[in-house]
Amino acid sequence: MEINIVIANKLNIKPSQVDTVLSLLEEGATIPFIARYRKDKTGALDEVQIQQIQDEAKALKEFNDRKTFIEKTITEQGKMTDALQAKINAATTLATLEDIYLPYKPKRKTKAQAAKENGLEPLALLVLEQTNIELAAEAAKYITENVKDADAALQGARDIIAETINEDATIRTKMRKLFEDTATVQSKVMSDKEAEAIKYKDYFDFSEPVHKIPSHRILAVLRGFLEGFLRVSIAPLEEEALALIEDVYVKNSLNSSVEQVKKAAKDAYRRLLQPSLESEFRTALKTKGDEEAINVFAENLKQLLLSSPLGSKRTLAIDPGYRTGCKVVCLNEQGDLLHNDLIYVHEANRKYDSEYKIKELVAKYNIQVFAIGDGTAGRETEQFIKGLQLNLPIFLVNEDGASVYSASETAREEFPDHDVTVRGAVSIGRRLMDPLAELVKIDPKSIGVGQYQHDVNQTRLKEKLDATVVSCVNQVGVNVNTASKHLLSYVSGIGSTLAENIIKYRNEIGKFSNRSQLLKVARLGGKAYEQCAGFLRIKNGDNPLDESAVHPETYVIVERIATDLNVDVKSLIGNESLLKTVDAKKYATEEIGTLTIQDILKELNKPGLDPRSELEQFEFANIYSIEDVKTGMIVPGVVTNLTRFGAFVDIGVKQDGLVHVSEIAHQYISDPSEALKLNDKVQVKVLEVDVLRKRIALSIKQTQEFDRAKSQNSKGKSLNRKEEKDLSQLNMNDALSALKSKFKK
After folding, report:
1. 367: left (phi over 0), alpha (psi -120 to 50) or beta
2. Considering the domain boundaries, does residue 150 fall inside one?
3. Which of 309, 440, 315, 289 is nearest to 368 (CA)?
């Protein structure tokens, strides 16, 4: 079957769509470009579908390459037959293909090969017939210098039978199905390692079916296995596995040959089949676990990169600290460093000087907003700034990865004359203004929004995260006159070399005034221009369309629309009433269809609209450390990380709490992302606090119960502030009882 048909059937799309996407990719088009500017050709496939087509095509190529290699190898051995070729042609999975190839696969000398060399293959075939013969006498005929006695001959025969069973493609297919349906993953702690392996305590005596075990548990078990703390096995019940083999190989008659075949079957399973399939399933489970963990990480990263930006504001950013002080930087609207300083807000004898210095900097640099890192001393520094009563917005900024950036080559290149503390503070301030522009400078693995990211396939992780960054950057668009080299490098069709060349040319000419100037950038040819132009923005340039996502290749259509409406292009942009009168079909051509025209009209209506939501201020409760957290409290928090088993929420005490998936919503959900997104503001109830292990268990759904209980009081006397505070400290049952009691009164 043709590749395009196979992929189309799997993804439930048309073969022509697959052909189009693969052709565009072959021509050098990027996924964001195809999704945004070639909708008419692809039938409006989105980035996810286009990526799936690319992935499936790659997997099919690998399959076909392996198939070709196997055919060539067997043919060269002189063992290819029409029946064997038919089996190979019928194979649809790599596992089936490898099962067929197994008997012909070059391998190190096996017990069966040694037995065959000793002339025992006829005896093995005789045993397999399971006729009523004097087996000991028959075996004695094969005694030689290398086969000492009849028992040795029978052992060799069993070795040959065991390998025959192991290499039987039908048996392997049935056994694989048995593993899929009934095998369990089992782990036990290694003897004398209980103390060292305490973090794997949940897996000291663990068992779960392979078809049920979630990705985070298999990755945890395998990590414990690789670290030498756990013994792991994957197998069905041995009795069922042996029965499966015996159904095929053992005849009903009772004689000595039958017993030999049963022994060979047990040996085949224990020595060959079970270890082989365990390895296969361990790899498959690891791959599945990796893919789920990578997808979780990628989705979290996407949400983080698309976090709400504050926009261009004169910012005073603070990287807090206790003993070493707080590093302060002042940034202009573009994020350029104007000044850096050091204050000590946590030392009584220096506090007055720090207050004076902050007020002086705010006045001197006309500061509009404060950005404070949310790490060590962050909440305390926030309280200090609030105490100055400067009436300026104050934002706590997630500083995960800021230290990684500050010590990176990128940071040294940007700020060669400043130390890591200054660079870190600048990163915090810039992250508030535009999270995307700043976060692209940091290795995504250091941002802290994944699970088991260091355990998964690193090549696949990098591919997925890079694709996520590219998708986000192109979704938002990039101001070519202010973007850093690192942000530009993620724009469709550009890359690091062209990004550097764009910066060099920008420095030469001062700034770009129109998109066509990009063609004057060294090594930026027509193809690269086609891919990148629509994603690069030029504000206040020669052509108002250069500030939008309208691609230069369709400017002529916009000009036609404007001419037909008797207005200039500038008057058309943002004119909702005028744009509503445009019939997209009227302007469609063979090359540019109605889907593209509709996109153009949407863009003209709201040109350059940032898809990210506006940033909102947020206040934590008056708790500052895990010791302040008490069971029963209901406090506000921010979702900082989503995993398959729950959501981590920052409640302002330097230690995120966990809301287990079962405590997120009243209805059943299997994945926290069904109900939550990164940076969501939520109310949580504290269920449990373990100060020693620094663990906080939280609930979202129980706060909803609490709110409902409060609302039921609307007919009676309102609760006063003290009563509300007391109520929030009670567990839910007590809260409901207290309310019922109050209603009666």
Report:
1. beta
2. no
3. 315
Cα torsion through 538, 539, 542, 545, rounded to 10: 70
Q: How confident is the model at residue 718 (pLDDT cuts 50, 70, 90)?
A: very low
Check: CB of residue 178 under 8 Å from CB of residue 240: yes
Final residue in a domain of this structure, among 400, 433, 466: 433
When divided into structural domains, the chain yields a total of 3
Q: Mind listing the pLDDT tens digit for each residue in 60-107?
A: 999 999 999 999 999 999 999 999 999 999 999 999 999 999 999 988
Residue pair 685/655 in contact (Cβ under 8 Å)? The answer is no
Residue 264 has pLDDT above 60, yes or no: yes
Q: Which of 104, 138, 160 is the last residue of a domain?
A: 104
The parent domain of residue 336 ranges over: 315-433
Helices (H), 77-149: 82-90, 94-101, 111-117, 121-129, 135-140
Whether the Cβ atoms of residue 635 and residue 620 lie closer than 8 Å to each other: yes
The residue-averaged pLDDT of 433-454 equals 84
For 507-560, list the strands marked E by DSSP. Answer: 536-537
pTM: 0.85
Cβ-Cβ contacts under 8 Å for 734 (sequence gap 6 or more): none
* CATH number of residue 735's parent domain: 2.40.50.140
Q: What residue type is 284 in one-letter code?
A: A
Residue 678 lies in a domain: yes
CATH number, domain with residue 86: 1.10.10.650
Weakest mean pLDDT among 150-159, 670-679, 725-734:
725-734
Residue 153 located in a structural domain:
no
